[in-house]
Design goal:
It is built from twelve helices and 18 strands. It is of the alpha+beta class. Helix 3 packs across helix 4 and helix 6 packs across helix 7. Bound molecules: 3-hydroxy-3-methylglutaryl-coenzyme A. The site of 3-hydroxy-3-methylglutaryl-coenzyme A has 29 residues, from helix 2, helix 6 and strand 13.
Amino acid sequence: MNVGIDLIHFATADYYLGLDTFAAEKNIDVDKFYIGIGQEKMSIAPPDEDVVTLSAKAAAPILAQIDSDEITAVLFATESGVDQSKSAGVFMHGLLNLANRCRVIEFKHACYSGAAALQMATTMVRANPKEKILVIAADIAKYDVDTSGEATQGSGAVAMLITENPRIINIEPGSGYFTEDVMDFWRPNHRTTALVDGKYSTKVYLNSLKQTWDHFTEVTEKSFADIDYFCYHIPFTKMAEKAHKTLIRRAKATVNDVDFDAQTLPGQLYNRIIGNSYSASLFIGFISLLDNVDADISNKRVSFFSYGSGCVAEFFTGVMQPGYQSVLMTNNHRTQIMNRAPLSYTEYLAFYHQPDSTDENITFEHNNRGAYRLAGIQDYKRYYEKTASET
Ligand code: HMG
C-alpha cells in the first residue's frame, strides 16, 4: 500500500533579520554567515506569532482543498510548546474549526519530532487506510543574544496531509534510527531560549547520520546510488553540506554516484533565507527541493535525515509520485518569503524581548500580519483570533 504526503505547505513569520544587518551590528565579517555557515536571513516572529498561529497559517491552504471534517488526527510536533499540559495542536484545532471527531497530540524531541509524527502518521494510515492525518512541524528557534547560536535563529511551520495513495511522495517502510543521551542542546523548563554546546552539537549530528545510515542500509539493503535527492535537517545550510560529504564517505559512494549540487542544493534555498525552524526545518528543505528543482523528479527517490539534539535521529526515504507538480503550493511559499518585512537590529530586539510569559494578563501589540494571531493572555489563558486578512 502506498502511504505518504498528499499535500504539503509551509508558513513562516512576516519579518526577517538580514545577517548583513546582524554582522554590521556585531562587527563581524558578513562572510562568516554567508559562506561560513551558509545563511543569509532569519525569519523573526513578533510576540503575537507562536507555533499555533504559524501552524494555522501552514495548514489553512491544505484544509481549503479538502473536507476538513475528514481529518482523523492532528499530530503536532514542536519544541516551542505553549503550554505544559494542553497541546498546541488543540489551540490550532479550535482556530481552524476542525471536527470534534479527531485526535490531537503533541510530539516532542527537539528537531526530530516532525519525523516522528510523520512516521507515526504513516503507520496509522497503513493500519487503517480511512485515516487522513494532519502532521504539523512548527518551531521558533531562539537562542540568547550574543551567543554562537544567535545567527542561526528562524521560524516556520510545515503542514502535511498523510493519506493512502498520496499525490506527492510515498514514504517507504524501513528506516535507520539512533538514540544517545547527550547534552549538545537543551532548554530547561524555565527558559524561553535554548542552550547549546555548538561545536559539539555538529559532531553529534554527523555521528548520528553515520549511525542511522548504517542501520538504514542493513534494514533496507538500499545503497547511496539508489537515492536521487538528499534532504537533511538544516540548522544552517553549511551543516547540510558537511552532512552530505560525511554520507558520501560513509557510504563509499563512487564518483558516478555523486552530483553534489544537484543532490542537495535545491533543498537548501529556502532554509538559507528562513533560518533554523527546528522540527520544521527538514520538511522546509523538502519543500525547497520540490519548489526549486528544475527537473521532473517523478519516480525519483528522496532521502530524509532527521536529527534532534539530545539526541534522536532517523534516516528514511520516499518515492516521488507522477504528477506531484500539480498539487505544489510554490507560489504561496515564494510570496510569503518575498513579502516579509526587514527588521533593523533594534526592531529585532523589540520582538525578541517578548512580554514575560509568566504574567497573568498580557495584551499583544498587533504585529502579526497573518490570518491568525495570539491576541492576549488573560488569567493565564491564551486567546487567539482570526483577523480580517483571513482568506
Ligand atoms: P561559531 O563559533 O559562531 O562559528 O559557531 P565558527 O567560528 O566555528 O565559524 C563557523 C564557520 O564559518 C567555520 O567553518 C569558519 O571557518 C567559517 P567550518 O570550520 O565550520 O567549516 N568562517 C568564515 N568563512 C568565511 N569567511 C569568514 C569566516 N569566519 C568564519 N570571514 C556554530 C558555529 C554552528 C557552533 C554556531 O552557529 C552554533 O552554536 N549554532 C547553534 C547550534 C547548531 O546549529 N548546531 C548544529 C547541529 S545540532 C542540530 O542541528 C540540532 C538543532 O537544530 C536543535 C534541535 O535539534 O532542536 C540545533
